[in-house]
Amino acid sequence: MIPPLYWNDEAFRVELLDQTLLPVEERWIPIETPEQMAEAIRKLRVRGAPAIGIAASYGVVLALRAPESHVEMVRKAIALLRQTRPTAVNLFGALRRMEAVADAYATADRHTLAQRLLAEARAIESEDREAGRRLGAYGLEVLKEGMRVLTHCHTGGVATSGYGTALAPFILGKERGIRLEAWVDETRPLLQGSRITAWELQKAGVPATLITDSMAAHVMQRGWVDAVIVGADRIAANGDVANKIGTYGLAVLARAHGIPFYVSAPISTIDFETPSGEAIVIEERDPREITHGFGRQTAPEGIRVYNPAFDVTPASLITAIITDQGILRPPYAEALQALRERLDTPMVSKA
């Protein structure tokens, strides 16, 4: 699997895969400052909720790159990175952890503070990698040999730090000799499905067929879809799920056609402090992503544009939520509360 980034110890910087250039070019770019990392997150050079959290944590470490840097620069970096994207909860969870380390070692020398922050960032990355493998294993409890599974947006290795979230069962299944076939939604307007998911599944040797978003209903109607699996950018305490725009429509279609609809996400994506999907902030992006997609004008000048990056799928439409700590089933408010009590670890976002 190709990671979204890696830490370069020798150069004290991040080497980041520019996902905006996929699938045509695999270019690694150096990230040396929190400002550069914030720009990379905003411009979707790194994307996917877990990968955003990992990238932000390393972005905090970069605040200590200069010899004269100190803890206040770390705090400014955390404040800057918090403002990059409002919906994905992993960003805020990772930054809370980095902030706790900065507070604990506020009076330490620069070298000690940097090493402690770097260790925490590496821990966040390592935990996500292990979570992805567990997600794959739990996913294979509901996705069986020969199933044709539709997925939306991109939820693979470069959106995380290893196996991915919704793509994890496909990748782990390939390793274990379990054949799954993928229907890949192209995912308008930025085409993460066609540019990244299709590319990643091809590299992994998983059979996949690309369709436009508007074809999903048709392939379901023909009886060619056995299940839908998607990732999540934030899961509310009642089980409502914020994910890439178009997810809600797939959930409605799946219900209409009697197809199970699964959400796969690590527990870092659960926001126990957000009571329902109504409280989730939905990011709105540049209208030019629609009117001038990939540099070509495809709409008349001056047309009004609404471009939300995410939508919210009600818990009532979700068959099961697959986490790295097990599979949750309705009623989700009770299942999530039981999970929270079992974890005994508060996860509070600062969105």
Any overview of this molecule?
- The protein is α/β, with parallel strands linked by helices and 351 residues long.
- The strands form three sheets. A seven-stranded mixed β-sheet has the order 6-5-4-7-10-12-13.
- Helix content is 38%, strand content 15%.
- The chain folds into two domains: 5-132, translation initiation factor eif-2b, domain 1 (Four Helix Bundle (Hemerythrin (Met), subunit A), Up-down Bundle); 135-343, Translation initiation factor eif-2b, domain 2 (Rossmann fold, 3-Layer(aba) Sandwich).
- It contains eleven helices and 13 strands.
- The chain is globular.
The CATH architecture category of the largest domain equals: 3-Layer(aba) Sandwich
The computed structural class is alpha/beta
Main beta sheet strand tally, sense and closure = 7 strands, mixed
What value does the Rg take, in angstroms?
20 Å
Please give the CATH class of the largest domain.
Answer: Alpha Beta
Helix and strand pattern:
EEEHHHHHEHEHEHEEEHEHEEEH
Number of domains: 2
Strand order of the largest sheet: 6-5-4-7-10-12-13
Number of separate helices: 11
In helices, the fraction of residues equals 25-40%
Number of strand elements: 13
Classified in CATH, the superfamily of the largest domain is Translation initiation factor eif-2b, domain 2
Classify the beta-strand content into a percent band.
5-15%
Unreliable stretches: 346-351
Estimate the global geometry from the Cα principal axes. Answer: globular
CATH fold group of the largest domain: Rossmann fold
> Separation of termini?
31 Å
